[in-house]
Amino acid sequence: MKKVLPYLVLGLSLGIASPAAAECYADYKAKKDNPLRLHYGVVKLPDNACSSRRDAADAVSSRIGGDGWILLNVLSVFDQSGLPERKESAGQYYLRY
Q1: Helix (H, G, I), strand (E, B), or coil: what is residue 70?
Q2: Alpha-carbon gap, residue 28 to 71, rounded angstroms
Q3: How many Cβ atoms from other residues are within 10 Å of residue 17's Cβ?
Q4: How does pLDDT run along the chain (97 residues), one tens digit per residue?
Q5: Dihedral sign, CA of 85, 70, 97, 48?
Q6: Edge-to-edge, what's the strand order for the sheet holding 24-32?
Q7: What is the C-alpha radius of gyration for the chain, rounded to an integer number of angstroms?
């Protein structure tokens, strides 16, 4: 038992001390009516919204909705490596929300 205990403690501590999740982002399209306005944006997502476009859509919709924007769709969910190629296209809506 004395030989097994250190390995058991090590195994438990490794399971608890997992690395932090990588940051994730989504790009999306949104609109406002009267008059019609459209925008393309990029937003940083909370960890719990990174697993699917549907989860991302819930997070994005609640953020942009505060300013009266209606989410049309989430185009993709991606990591930091996808940010540079989207920055120019998103313009003022790059990481705004």
Answers
A1: strand
A2: 7
A3: 7
A4: 455 444 444 443 433 333 455 899 999 999 999 999 999 999 999 999 999 999 999 999 999 999 999 999 999 999 999 999 999 999 999 999 9
A5: negative
A6: 37-45, 24-32, 70-78
A7: 20
pTM of the entire predicted model? 0.76
What are the b/e assignments for 81-94, b being 16+ CB within 10 Å? eebeebeeebeebb
Q: How far is CA 33 from the centre of its chain?
A: 26
Dump strand ranges (E) for the chain: 24-32, 37-45, 70-78
Bridge partners of residue 42, in order along the sequence? 27, 94
Give me the residue label for tokens 């609109």. 31
Q: Which amino acid is at 43?
A: V
